Amino acid sequence: MSHLLLYYQRPEPATWVFLSSFLLLSIYFVFHRFFCIRNLDILLLILLAPGLMMVYEGRRMHLAQDQSVTTEVLASRPSASWQVGGAAGRDRARFVATAQPAQPLPQQQQTVQGVAPAGASETLLGEAIGSSTQGQLGSPLNNDGYPTPGVPTETSAASLEFYGFIALLLACFLLMIRMLIDPAFVRRPLLIPNLSIGGLSFIGVSLFLFLMANVITSSPLEQRERGPSLGPGYALLNMLPELPTTPDGEPTGSSADRLEDREHWLPNVARILAILSNFAIVFGIVGVGYWHFDNVKTGIGCAVMYLLLPYTAQMTGNLEHVVPAALLVLALLAYRQPLVAGMLMGLAAGLVYYPLFLLPLWISFYWHRGLKRLLGGVGASLLLLSGLLLLEGFEAFGAHLRSMYGLWLPRMDGLVGVWGPGRFHADFRLPVLAAFILLSASFVFWPPRKNLGTLICGTAAIMLAAQFWHGNGGGLFMAWFLPFVLLTIFRPNLDDRIATQVVWGRKVARASTGAG
Fold it and tell me: Which site from 139, 218, 328, 397 is most exposed, i.e. has the minimal number of CB atoms within 10 Å?
């Protein structure tokens, strides 16, 4: 893209935060009604940006330290030719640096020329990295390679990332409270964006093309094999590479080269899937506004706000974020057809496991009409995804099936985010998980009369609550709840959209035929 657009460079995330925040305020802030709930909602959405930036800067500091330390160590050994592949922990606060000779020599020649064997060089490299990071982080490292709890300075990468996750979860907590009390708001005046439909459409199309161009031109990062250390999820989805869309999120060294050389089709499949998923999210939001809110400007305004948020620019190419989000938004769009909605929700739950906790809410909504079709669609999708795991071989089928459904005890090791080593003790994650399960089950009973509005805000609340016990960076998976939060903010009064009135069935079909 740089050759097509005169050496275009992707904007820094901090630049995107400032620009998008001013645009959000100028387009959506209600200046003639300063003290209104819509303005508070916009400020809550902007509060997600500081924590996201702190996590991003903390991880970039880790990557910079990784590269600088590796360069210094290898520069002090000029007798060998080295090819460095940085493997910074994308989902961890720690980083691991690896290096290997480009043309390895036999051990006898290495000894003669004064070059240490491979095992010894890796040991020396690890010792040098450990000593250097100890000085850069300003704190000693424990046996696991993490800074000792409470010792890191405020400017260190570990503490910056930790406080970033704290800020993210605080913003998520405020949004979750907002979603839980939303059914109590009876009066919902129509507050349309400050820009016309034509202006919103132009900005939305431009943003979408800009973000998708970043996806197309990104260099893939090789994914790791999923297992209990990565949390529950679908093994086949994890085979696809991640597509970084930030300026310094590109892979360095031989990691990207090995991925491109070995399997050319995987990055292309990932790019196509990322583009289709982002398009499905935008289309689903606009479709909900047009078909279910009876206001296309509201749907376009929600979609443009989603594209403007700093999170969208950073995580556009992360399939674990956008694919389940797209399926959930399309399930909401098809809520009048329980079978289709159930199939889409089953696909989302099979890919990342966490949407399974939406079933109590959706079952309660369809209790009087459409329940069997909903459960049939969910079951069919889960059965299909389970059968596709056989493509990996029968020997790995059991492990992949356990990973898909999370059939293991809550893990205590290998956690990232606020539950990582040196942070909040992992044992406190268990009561948070228990509270989350109780919250999910409580939607069976309240509110007693569920409509489309409670379905939207309840889905947002549950996916927000999942961030608090997520073991792989809870707070970063914003695509799972942002579309539903935005639709809740802009939605009209939907008290009449209950299952017995709007779900397609024989009675509804006969009524529509008679009215025609």
Answer: 397
